[in-house]
User: Fold these one by one.
Assistant:
Number 1:
Amino acid sequence: MELNNLRPSVGSTKNRKRIGRGTGSGHGKTATKGHKGQKARSGGSIKAGFEGGQMPLQRRLPKRGFTPIDRVVFSLVNIKQLDLFEVGTIVNASSLVAMGLIKSDRNPVKILGNGEITKSFKVIANKFSQTAKDKIIAAGGSIEETL
């Protein structure tokens, strides 16, 4: 095998459709564009969403709400999920990512108080709900709020 005799495998390529090359080709005369009309002309394309002059759907629907620029999206973790950790470990964003409880440590982390906690550990997060604080401290752990 050499570079000068490499070929694509049989059946993997097709010849391109040559249109507008006479009536005998089967693709002559109108060159597969049908008869007259906007789409048969050169440059005759219709932009996406155009509905023939009718008011388009995206303009018929009302605009609702807004997206605040300074919105902060927290990664949420419940107390019951923290029971996966060993007693006495330091639970922070990177350890939560390692255990698969949050996807990324880019967003700030908030610990919520849903569920019960039986082990004690030091939890470092950006925010805590009041019930989460109470339950962690009641189980003998400690919290550290960073933000």
Number 2:
Amino acid sequence: MSLYTDEVKKRANSSPYYHLLGMEVIDLKDGWARIDMNFKNGLTQFYGAVHGGAIASLLDSSVAIALLSLCEPGDRVTTIEMKINYLHPVNEPIRGEGKIIHKGSRIAVGEADAKTTEGKLVAKALVTYMIKKNPLESLP
């Protein structure tokens, strides 16, 4: 892992939003990331399953972190479109694995899976990002 991907992982894992959702970047390679999300009752909807919004955050973050591993320090990435298929309700910890399918100079596309720790597919997403070059600033 490069110093930059170390910094991406460190900053993501110190994010207040990641702490709120119980998310942690576990592994990060060029164009690929794995994020684990703990199960807690505060993330459930009224049927007791993890809320789709929390799963969406996990999937979006998995692809965004994967994309940042391919960007230059100071670049910013912003989600411009996301499509999710929710396949099974879940009330246990889940893992998001995101990978980049295409990275251009301004637009990138990635996909992500959310799975239980036993490997059951919970949700699948396709996400498009805008890449903004900003060499004067460091990571968010």
